[in-house]
Structure formats: structure tokens, C-alpha cells
Amino acid sequence: AQSVTQLGSHVSVSEGALVLLRCNYSSSVPPYLFWYVQYPNQGLQLLLKYTTGATLVKGINGFEAEFKKSETSFHLTKPSAHMSDAAEYFCAVSVSGANNLFFGTGTRLTVIP
Amino acid sequence: EPEVTQTPSHQVTQMGQEVILRCVPISNHLYFYWYRQILGQKVEFLVSFYNNEISEKSEIFDDQFSVERPDGSNFTLKIRSTKLEDSAMYFCASSEGWTSGGYNEQFFGPGTRLTVL
């Protein structure tokens, strides 16, 4: 079975500071890993994904994440936070051939001017 | 850009009443999903639907729940007799199908917040 743990339900950073949102997963088979972002009153938007190949993946809006198998982690980072990054971020895991995604509880990112 | 839409954005109902949540998936997509998120908890998979039938469902999706694609555009989730614990945000998603990479990218709607009183 698959599961995801997101450490920190709320993260606050200053504008221009590093963003680090943590995600650890559990999977008995090679996982597919995703980060989704939800802006107020909008749907979950795919930010980036890891399926196979390069373990450092780049997504939209300057975000990137690194798949670390030894640490079972897929942390999301951005070098410099922007006010527009304020949103809820969800980490999710799936496996090949599966219909469903397993989500974490989400992390609300606040960016302080 | 095509997007998944959901109506209503917020639904308030009395316990024991039936509710229908509506979704319009992206037009060329073939797979449809419902997820829910109880406040403060994980987003949980409910059901997936393909070729006019349920392809997978979770333990949450009991006999109180049903899904339907009544026409070529809508995808609905019905809860027959709502309970207090059904209060949650319900997300609809759709996907085109499997990529050569073996994953199935799902596109989500904005959600319907269901409040059961």
C-alpha cells in the first residue's frame, strides 16, 4: 500500500527566502510522485511529477523536487519565494497501473512581505 | 485551457437528505474520479470510472454513494442519505488515459464543499 506524510501543515517564509516543503512516502513498489498546488477557489494543479529517470525534477513557477529513494522523500523547493506562491501544496503518490492517487494532508504556504 | 468544473461550489444539506454533486470533466478525457477531503485530513480516493462503469473504488465508497455519467459531458456523485461525517470537500478529476511512462495524469476541479447539518 502507498501513503504520504507531509511534515508541517503550515509553513511561513519571507518573500525571497527559500521554500522547503517536506514529503515522505511509503510504497512497496517503485512510486510515481507528484506535487499539486491549490490556489484559493481553484482546483488542484499539477506542479511537477517524478515517474522515472532523473531524480531532480523541475516544475512550473520555479519549483523543483528531488526523489531520494534512500530517504523515501520527495521534498519540494524553490530558491526564492514570491507572494504569488501562497497556496496549499499537496504531495501524492501512485504506482504504475493504478487508478488512484494517495495524498498527504497538505501544507499551507504563507509568504510574508 | 480546458479545465474540470464542479457545481455547486458549496452545498448545505440536512442529515438524511440526498445530494448530487456535479462535475464536467475535460471533454476528451476517458477516466473520471471522485476524491474527498475532510477538513484537516488527507485527500482520499473514492472512486474511478471508465467506459461507463466503476473501475475501482475505496472502502469509503459504500452503498450510500453512486456515480453516473448521465450524458456525454456530466459526471455526478450522489450521496443517498447524507450523514454528518460526509461533510467534506469533494474533488472531481479526469484523465486522458495512460501515458507511455505508465502514469495517468489527473486534472482536478475546484471542489464542492459539502456541509451536512
Topology:
The complex is a heterodimer of chains A (113) and B (117).
Chain A: E1 3-5, E2 10-14, E3 19-21, E4 24-26, E5 31-38, E6 44-50, E7 56-58, E8 64-68, E9 73-78, E10 87-95, E11 102-103, E12 107-112
Parallel strand pairs in A: 2-12
Antiparallel strand pairs in A: 1-4, 3-9, 5-6, 5-10, 7-8, 8-9, 10-11, 10-12
Chain B: E1 5-7, E2 10-13, E3 19-24, E4 31-37, E5 43-50, E6 53-57, E7 65-68, E8 75-79, E9 88-95, E10 106-108, E11 112-116
Parallel strand pairs in B: 2-11
Antiparallel strand pairs in B: 1-3, 3-8, 4-5, 4-9, 5-6, 7-8, 9-10, 9-11
Describe this structure in words.
With 113 residues, chain A is mostly beta strands. Chain A contains no helices and twelve strands. Chain A has strands spanning 3-5, 10-14, 19-21, 24-26, 31-38, 44-50, 56-58, 64-68, 73-78, 87-95, 102-103, 107-112. In chain A, strands 2, 5, 6, 10, 11 and 12 form a six-stranded mixed β-sheet that branches. In chain A, β10 (87-95) and β11 (102-103) form a beta hairpin. Chain B has 117 residues and is mainly β. Chain B is built from no helices and eleven strands. In chain B, β7 and β8 form a beta hairpin. Chain B has strands spanning 5-7, 10-13, 19-24, 31-37, 43-50, 53-57, 65-68, 75-79, 88-95, 106-108, 112-116. In chain B, the strands form two sheets. In chain B, strands 2, 4, 5, 6, 9, 10 and 11 form a seven-stranded mixed β-sheet that branches. In chain B, strands 1-3-8-7 form a four-stranded antiparallel β-sheet, with no helix packed on it. The N and C termini of chain B lie far apart (37 Å). The A-B interface holds A 4, 9, 32, 36, 41-46, 49, 51-52, 90, 92, 94, 96-106 and B 3-4, 6, 9, 31, 33, 35, 37, 40-45, 48, 55-56, 58, 91, 93, 98, 101-111.
